[in-house]
Amino acid sequence: MNILNCIQNGDTFLLKRINMSLKCKSLDIIMPLATYLASKVSLVIFCLFTELNPDPFIHLLGVKCTVSLILSTVVAQIFKKSVSRIRPFLIVNNLNIKKIGIDEYSFPSGHTTAAFTVSAMISLFYPTAIFLLMLLACLIGVSRIYLGVHYPSDVFAGAILGTISSFIVFYLV
Questions:
Q1: Beta-ladder partners of 22
Q2: What pLDDT is stored for residue 2 in this prediction?
Q3: Active-site residue numbers?
Q4: What stretches of the chain show up as alpha helix (H) in DSSP?
Q5: Strand, coil or helix: what is 86?
Q6: For residue 49, what pLDDT is reported?
Q7: How many domains does the chain have?
Q8: Cα dihedral sign, 21-23-26-29
Q9: Cα torsion at 95, 98, 101, 102 (round to 10°)?
Q10: Which of 166, 74, 171 lies closest to 122 in space, CA to CA?
């Protein structure tokens, strides 16, 4: 068995464990809401609010968030198109899924990428908030698995990509 098959099998196993073991009515409400915190609409509102803020520190946070979101989104889309990983709910049987708006491919998770991009950038500006922000970003990532639209490795890759993008923009731009 080659390495990619091992990764896929482990990913599917973890996906099923997380997706099925967490299933409950409360999370059926909470997880879609968590996912939408990293939606395009939420991110545009956040970036506009911070960029238009008269406080120069918050304005700079908004500009750097916007630039890092653009960077991480472009890189994520390049990966999505080149890897072309099919979403799990289309090929894994017996998943608990919620129908939500999604694009074609799974790797990496765009919502998780965005969540970690914003959380990491805000944490760089406000280090005391890192625990709460990373917890929220992790919740968004887990929500993607809970909803059956991503494998754990999609979420992990999104977390890494988002975090790295923010560090690059924070320190180099």
A1: none
A2: 80
A3: 111, 150
A4: 3-21, 25-36, 40-51, 56-83, 88-91, 110-125, 130-146, 152-172
A5: strand
A6: 95
A7: 1
A8: positive
A9: -20
A10: 166
29 Cβ contact list (under 8 Å, min separation 6): none
Mean pLDDT of 45-72: 96
Q: What is the pLDDT of residues 59-92, one digit of tens each?
A: 999 999 999 999 999 999 999 999 888 888 888 8
Q: pTM above the 0.90 mark?
A: yes
Domain CATH code at residue 155 = 1.20.144.10
Query: 122-162 pLDDT, tens per residue?
Result: 999 999 999 999 999 999 999 999 998 899 999 999 999 99
Pairwise CA distance, residues 32 & 155, whole Å: 16
Instruction: Single out the residue of 96, 123, 114, 91 nearest to residue 11, CA to CA.
Output: 91
- Reference 149, options 79, 81, 88, 86; nearest CA is 88
* CB count in 10 Å sphere of residue 66: 20
Is residue 19 scored above 90 in pLDDT? no
Residue 41 lies in domain: 3-172
